[in-house]
Amino acid sequence: MATEVSVVVPVHNEESTIVACLNHLVAQTHPIAEIIVVDNNSDDSTRELVESFAKNHGNVRLLTEPEQGVVYARNRGFNAAKCEIIGRIDADTRVRPDWAEAAVRYFNNDAAADCAMVTGLSLLYDAPFQNYAARQHRKRCPTPREWPTPSGNNCFILKSAWESIKDSLDTRLDIHEDAALGIRLRQQGWTIMMLPDLVIEMSPRRFVVPPWKGFDYYRAIVRTHEAMGQIEDAKRIRRTMPLVAVVVTGLWIVYGGWDPMKRRWRIMELLTNKGGRVSPVTSSPAAGQAQ
Length: 291
Fold this sequence. Notes:
The chain is of the alpha/beta class. Helix content is 40%, strand content 19%. The protein folds into two domains: 5-205, Spore Coat Polysaccharide Biosynthesis Protein SpsA, Chain A (Alpha-Beta Complex); 207-272, no CATH class. The longest helix is centred in the last third of the chain and has 17 residues, at 211-227.
């Protein structure tokens, strides 16, 4: 029975989010054995904040990955993890108190025999309509169900599964590293499960980027399937891109105009919003071929 959990948090210039992220990780109903923060060339105060936090929490350690790219930071953390169950979140993720407990409970269930990875619902903090989103998710997924790809800001993988596929993964920076990981696992006969109780909240910063600046993030899912040899899936997803563009624009209007302090939507907020964090997915491979 695997019960100990490592959690990997890749970071790059996350001084505004990392402390809240860590506070949620150390407040779990199932204690996390090690929290591995992997700094990927931050030039703000991220490192200092993590080092200060670690002084009061012995299960927190800071690693450095000099090769720029979230895929390299993730790999560094996964390879360093000591526990059989490895969690992965982003620095703006705030996990629910029973987050780790939900994953451990499922992996130790007889139904999880072929499961290598679990993922869950990602809600937004400081954003409207989240109770509605949670209710709709519960209707669609009342019990664990097989899922095509994990969400990198809310997932767990078995270390044994990671060891079995890590050398076959691509390090291109223009694809989604979490989706590529999920595709490779399924190609090797593993399953990925969506757990209804595995819930996190994240910043809405991804959705306040104007669509004309951030749409390549969504086109990258096509490149990801092509890179992993899923050509027919890539064609199918490419055909949905016009609809994706409409949805992304709608999300930008809703969340880009939301004032979290006044708890209301304002047109001036949308017009003056300079956008959120730039996507870590690039428009060119930059660094990489398959390892």
